[in-house]
Amino acid sequence: MGKIVCFTGKRPQNMPFKFDEYHPRCIALKEKMYNEIEKLISIGCSHFITGMALGVDIWAAEAVLYFKRRGMPVLLEAAIPCKGQEKRWSVKYQERYRHILEQCDKVTCIAEIYEKDCMKRRNEYMVDKSDVVVAVCNDKTGGTGATLHYAQSRHKIILIVNY
Predict the structure, then answer these.
(1) What does DSSP say about strands 157-161 and 132-136: parallel, antiparallel, or unpaired?
(2) Beta strands, E only, 97-138
(3) At a CB cut-off of 8 Å and minimum separation 6, what does 25 contact?
(4) CA angle at residue 67 from 63 to 72, to 5 degrees?
(5) Beta-ladder partners of 77
(6) CA gap 81, 109 in Å, rounded
(7) In the prediction, which pLDDT does 1 show?
(8) pLDDT of residue 2
(9) Residue-range definition of the domain harbouring residue 24
(10) Total-model pTM
(11) Cα angle 119-123-128, degrees, rounded to a multiple of 5
């Protein structure tokens, strides 16, 4: 079995381009993510875990699914913090979320309902299960920073993708 990779990263509202996925910086970031995932596949990574949050998690899932459709030997696992995490999102993003979940090889739900620490527990689950953590960020703050500190404490390989 190949190595396992998980993703962590900032939400769109915390990035310079916000929710504009046609912004040149967003397009460039997605290209970097695709290139990084392709390199990881080429060295034997085959199981990818996404937390299914807006932004980086969704983009990573879509990238893995892109390679899966092209016959690459990859599995996609969605690690969701709780059922209904998407219920306050726009209809467009809810549909995108559900479309990805339908294509996942595995869905792991951390909590049946929202709990104060379910996102932290989701992040720790992903790190604990992974060999490699891909972090899309320019700093180590917020949930991404906490996940990176946790990954460091668990001696995981960390790849930083700046935006």
Answers:
(1) parallel
(2) 106-111, 132-136
(3) 15, 16, 17, 163
(4) 150
(5) 49, 106
(6) 6
(7) 57
(8) 79
(9) 3-161
(10) 0.96
(11) 145
In 20-163, DSSP assigns E strands to 45-50, 75-82, 106-111, 132-136, 157-161
- Give whole-number Cα distances, 82 to 51, 78, 107, 146, in Å: 10, 11, 11, 19
Per-residue pLDDT tens over the stretch 59-113: 999 999 999 999 999 999 999 999 999 999 999 999 999 999 999 999 999 999 9
d(CA 127, CA 83): 20
Q: For residue 89, give the DSSP letter.
A: S
Token pair belonging to 132? 């490699």
141-153 mean pLDDT: 94
In degrees rounded to 5, what are phi and psi of residue 48?
-120, 135
Residues 8-44: pLDDT tens digits?
Answer: 999 999 999 999 999 999 999 999 999 999 999 999 9
**How many structural domains does the chain have?**
1
Phi, psi (deg, nearest 5) at residue 24: -55, -35
| CATH code, 93 | 3.40.50.450
Tokens of 117: 């620490």
